[in-house]
Specification:
Elements: H1 2-26, E1 44-45, E2 50-55, E3 62-67, E4 74-79, E5 85-90, E6 96-104, E7 107-108, E8 112-117, E9 119-120, E10 127-128
Parallel strand pairs: 1-8
Antiparallel strand pairs: 2-5, 3-4, 3-6, 6-7, 6-8, 9-10
Length: about 130
Amino acid sequence: MARVVATVVVAVGVLVAALSAQGAASAEPVQAPDPGVPFSSVVYGTGCTYWLTGLVNSRGTVTFWEGKKGYTPRLIGSAEPAGGQATIRWIPRRIGDRYLYTKQNGVRSKLTLARVHQGYGSGGTCIAI
């Protein structure tokens, strides 16, 4: 009887480990991050605040990145997902085209192009020209 119990315990442990490994291997961002629609509808403004959202299909910290061609990407924040998405506050600091993306469990999302111009105002009453 002890052998049967030990065999069942080991089998359940192997099954749980296999399912956990499968979930981690398929975990990835579902789409490119969404910085929302800017007030000016075309460009984002330096110093303005936007909510950057990434859709994900698993648990694990989601990191948000901002990059520019030819430069090392910059970590702009991280968040734990809730309800299949993670959200951070993004404030563009420099003018120019920026590529935004998320990473979760070592997998990178597709890129989102954000055109950043000079921002005027602050927070929700900020516009870019």
